[in-house]
């Protein structure tokens, strides 16, 4: 029986979309085609997904709390809220636009691991446009979803306690970002996923991917978290958002004059690493 391997089935899915678009053959017909026989023979035998690289950046050493001695609790919290609101809004604005994800190498959402393995072969056989279209669609879905983050992030700022603020001010370069992740990630998932789902319903290949990825997971060829494209895109969209927030936070800590508001500038200057 042809195309036993999961990645071969992925190739069939790409080919099925191509043929369907031309109103020609169905998936069953494709299995018997010489072209797909050649595709299947060309696929490397070892297709187990590689271990995901660690996404966390090294965290800088905490700042000393001595610099905060001259500021009241109210000023500490107020200054932090100014800076965090600024950082959150800038991060969302940078992503919530056309090419916010797609045009930024730091946050662009790539094809899932299983499809990346097949990408070069697809291009060899003139089917690279389908991989490109899927990549574009995934990133457009993230760009459409990320505006939903603004209210949740600013809401988390408003709920911040004095203890939260002191921990963030004297923490590492990404301590505020970690606070946001802890307090908003579940809610962001609920907000992002329906928008991603709506966007990806227009992409027939996304549905095909879910069918084949489910089978691949049972064979240990696909990470369980990546079996649903909506889940994968949602997770990557949040990773990109928090990465951009971490960069904003680090920039303000390193150059307090970038902070909006005189109070925030004074407090962050006092605790500058």
Question: Regions with pLDDT < 50 over 5+ consecutive residues?
Answer: 1-7, 9-63
Radius of gyration: 23 Å
Largest sheet: number of strands, sense, barrel closure: none
Could you give the distance between the termini? 63 Å
* Helix-strand string: HHHHHHHHHHHH
Give me the number of helical elements. 12
Q: Structural class per helix/strand content?
A: mainly alpha
Query: How many E-type strands?
Result: 0
Helix content: 55-70%
Give the overall average pLDDT. 78
Overall shape: it is elongated
Summarize the structure in words.
With 273 residues, this protein is mainly alpha-helical. The protein has a domain at 73-110 and 132-270. Helix content is 64%, strand content 0%. It has 12 helices and no strands. It has helices spanning 6-21, 27-30, 34-42, 73-95, 113-124, 128-145, 149-158, 162-169, 175-200, 204-218, 229-254, 262-270. The longest helix is centred in the last third of the chain and has 26 residues, at 175-200. The protein is elongated and about 65 Å long.
């Amino acid at each position: 029986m042809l195309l036993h391997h999961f990645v071969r089935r992925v190739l069939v899915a790409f080919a099925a979309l191509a043929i369907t678009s031309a109103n020609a053959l169905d998936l069953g017909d494709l299995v018997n085609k010489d072209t797909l026989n050649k595709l299947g023979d060309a696929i490397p035998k070892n297709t187990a997904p590689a271990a995901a690289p660690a996404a966390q950046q090294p965290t800088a050493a905490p700042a000393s709390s001595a610099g905060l001695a001259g500021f009241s609790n109210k000023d500490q919290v107020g200054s932090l809220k100014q800076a965090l609101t600024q950082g959150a809004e800038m991060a969302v604005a940078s992503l919530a636009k056309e090419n916010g994800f797609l045009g930024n190498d730091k946050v662009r959402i790539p094809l899932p691991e299983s499809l990346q393995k097949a990408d070069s072969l697809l291009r060899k056989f003139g089917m690279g446009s389908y991989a490109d279209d899927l990549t574009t669609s995934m990133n457009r879905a993230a760009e459409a979803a990320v505006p939903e983050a603004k209210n949740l992030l600013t809401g988390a700022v408003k709920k911040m306690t004095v203890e939260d603020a002191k921990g963030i001010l004297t923490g590492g370069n990404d301590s505020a970002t970690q606070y946001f992740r802890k307090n908003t990630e579940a809610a962001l998932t609920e907000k992002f996923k329906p928008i991603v789902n709506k966007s990806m319903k227009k992409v027939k290949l996304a549905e095909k991917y879910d069918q084949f990825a489910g089978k691949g997971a049972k064979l240990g060829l696909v990470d369980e978290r990546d079996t649903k494209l909506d889940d994968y895109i949602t997770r990557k969209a949040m990773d990109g958002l928090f990465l951009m927030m971490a960069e904003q936070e680090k920039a303000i800590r390193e150059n307090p004059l970038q902070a909006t508001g005189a109070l925030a500038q004074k407090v962050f200057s006092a605790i500058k690493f």
